[in-house]
């Protein structure tokens, strides 16, 4: 497959792993990159630039292919401005292939990254933000629909509308995220103007993702309506699995809880423990509506190859309908 995204990143297929706090590790990253996509190491898994650098070195022991990084610039109790500066500096020094930024703009780092040959993309949920990203000189923009796991933008626009709106509004390549899991969604995203797709929830259900097997069982069992948007009332909305904890958070929000009261329930350690122990009720497990389409656990190589083969077959079949 050839798109501006495969060319930009030097990858075989335009399939990218998004940032996943605790789950986007060097091992998962290497498995995805070795399968022809672009793997991801999430910088916020690490407490310092040097810990993060060690993770990049670990991934490079496992793959010689391009690797991607997520840096999330959201309000955080764990990270100072200096640590974020270090994350970007390490990316430039290590000459990683690409950085996926989410949250605050990373304009002050762009020049350093570009001088090091590092491509930078930003995840947005609105046309107005995509236009800024293009104007500021980013290399690509990621259109994130409200279906996505993690922190969708408060505009709440779904992929089906957001993606073509952004694709018709900017000239830089657009990557689609939110609800992408298989060849059908890859074909749809390409048809709607994307030159690549970014997925996270589906990559949890791969053998190389280091979660407790109970997590996989739960993802396969749960349906598309079983996620919820938490923390909208405090301006930090996130999409997570409906469970005891997220229902408690919604209840507290309905009663007017302040962010300070919610923070203990959102602590990163809770989700780290849950991914590892398989306790699916007591942490905000950030997954997308795409859980409804997660049917099995595969290797990353099986997933990516099947997606590409299926997308090709679907696009050919649809083309044949016009003849
Ligand atoms: C478990 C999990 C953790 C995530 N953590 C982050 C994160 O730390 N930073 C970020 O920018 N996005 C994060 N996301 C969002 C993803 O990068 C991606 O935008 C989104 O999940 C795509 O939608 P999908 O889940 O339908 O594939 C996370 C998603 C999941 C599923």
Helix share bin: 40-55%
Helix/strand order? HEHEHEHEHEHEHEHEHHEEHHHH
Radius of gyration (Å): 18 Å
CATH top level of the largest domain? Alpha Beta
Largest sheet geometry: 8 strands, parallel
Strand order of the largest sheet: 1-8-7-6-5-4-3-2
Global outline? globular
Distance between the termini: 23 Å
User: What percent of residues are in strands?
Assistant: 5-15%
CATH superfamily of the largest domain: Aldolase class I
Structural class: alpha/beta
Q: Assembly type of the shown chains?
A: single chain
**Would you report the number of β strands?**
10
User: Count of helices?
Assistant: 14
Number of domains: 2
Which stretches are poorly predicted, pLDDT < 50 over at least 5 residues?
Answer: none
Task: Give the CATH architecture of the largest domain.
Answer: Alpha-Beta Barrel
What compounds sit in this structure? flavin mononucleotide
> Which fold name corresponds to the CATH topology of the largest domain?
TIM Barrel
Average residue pLDDT: 97
Protein model, in words:
The protein has 323 residues and is α/β, with parallel strands linked by helices. It folds into two domains: 4-210 and 294-320, TIM Barrel (Alpha-Beta Barrel), CATH 3.20.20.70; 213-290, no CATH class. The chain is built from 14 helices and ten strands. It has helices at 4-9, 26-34, 49-62, 81-94, 107-115, 127-136, 159-167, 183-191, 201-204, 213-221, 244-254, 259-266, 268-277, 300-320; strands at residues 15-17, 39-42, 67-73, 98-103, 119-124, 140-144, 174-177, 196-199, 227-230, 238-241. The protein has an eight-stranded parallel β-sheet. Helix 3 (49-62) runs parallel beside helix 4. The chain is globular and about 55 Å long. The two termini are 23 Å apart. The relative contact order is 0.13. The mean pLDDT is 97. The structure holds flavin mononucleotide. The site of flavin mononucleotide has 28 residues, from strand 3 and helix 9.
